Amino acid sequence: MDSDKNFMFKKILIANRGEIACRVIRACRDMNILTVAVYSAADRDALHVRMADEAYFIGAPPSNESYLRGEKIIEVAKKSGAEAIHPGYGFLSENADFVRKVTAENLVFIGPSPDAMDAMGGKISARKIAIEANVPIVPGTTEPLETYEEAQRIAAQVGYPIMLKAAAGGGGKGMRFVPSAEDLKSAYENSKSEALASFSNDEVYIEKAVVRPRHIEIQVFSDKHGNHVHLGERECSIQRRHQKVVEECPSPINSKELRAAMGMSAIKVARAVNYVGAGTVEFLVSDETREFYFLEMNTRLQVEHPVTELVTGIDLVREQIRVAFGEKLSFTQDEIKWETHAIECRVYAEDPENNFLPSPGKITRLRVPQGNGVRDDGGVYEGAEVSIYYDPMISKLAVFGKNRAEAIDRLRRALREYEVGGIKRTLPFIREIVEDEEFIAGNLDTGFITGFNERRKAKKVDETMRDLAIIAAALANGGKQKTLNEVNKTEQNASRWAMAGRMAAHQNRI
Ligand code: MV4
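Predict the joint structure of the above. Result:
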């Protein structure tokens, strides 16, 4: 790529689908860059296909026959005259071999080097790099466990509770929480078999379990001139089955000191692997001590990048494209400010009343919220089909305000406006989360959803017992009009019944 003759790419291929493909197309449009979409047979009428300047069919719906076909995608890039490929997230976004093939064809991969991907793809190698860079890691091993006996010995040294984790893993797959020595054998065997099934690699290692930590990640950005800047933190502790549900920037426990320390650690990791582009360094943070520990680095743009964009005012996708072209970062560390607050909710085509089972089908009604402080990154339209073949996330709703309270007010308002018909969606679940007292108080940790579900169940028991008490009182009184005194007595009975109901529920009797 001879940048002397051109001031920017003329055409970029987006090797993705859904909301992130639409997001990248918008950034390219802002930069007057032509866009090439690729689509599977299931996405022929998808929004990203409609938005792009050109679109090419790449195969059958299953991802490994379409969006994971690196050779086919490279072929389309060359045929269409695209000079660069933006991978989005997921699919090929962290596939080092794909990056090597793209580069070998004199195309530009908009992201980090394959070596940086490989260094961070292995969780044990990532831990070693963090140690080398003087970044705190969770106490534990930096080699895979050879035998169960070795696991026993090291677990005793580290001290229970421990976490067993897959060396080739991430996102919780192959991870097991082990509270005591009695639980180690089965956890060790299950962790290895799940790691083998998920990653074709059964290596596992041990970490001391950080109990009820916060999951806080730092956005880093690096260019090809050795500049590394952090763009602050994102609180990502509200997760369901290791899938983030609500993310926000800044964290409710942010402080100048904590942000500076975590940001510096994240930059040390990025520098250690000569990182280029947008990256995210994940940490666990102890709520009590505020100590933080390196977890892993994601060498891609994250789903939740909008909350960082809304607070810092930086278009991360635009910056990815500039940096891939060879430009220097368009900002310095001192220019980054965090003076507002942003919250994002992911909207999934899943049924919260039926164990979040995916709910594919036609979207018969779509009203996305708008107005002051509201951003909807969507990949669908009214009449679009939600496919069974891909991740069921259909959009992300992000709001921002001058502070967290204003952001929550806006989120409540926006969620009231949000209408999705024809499929089940997780909006009712999110609406309950944003009304939860612990959420509003900012008391978040990785156990939040568990606690939230318990509070939700207790409330339902209370309501049921109260209703029963009032019905019983009305029946006992033959439905006659009641004095104020009698109504109060009914309320007192209802409270007693509710307490009895809660105790019974606690003993799983109802
Ligand atoms: C941990 C941890 C506590 N202690 N490691 C989850 C997936 C991957 N990002 C790493 N994760 C964790 N690693 C140690 N040593 C807590 C998490 C964690 C988590 C664990 C269980 C349930 C939900 C969780 C959400 C975020 C992080």
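The longest strand covers residues 228-240.
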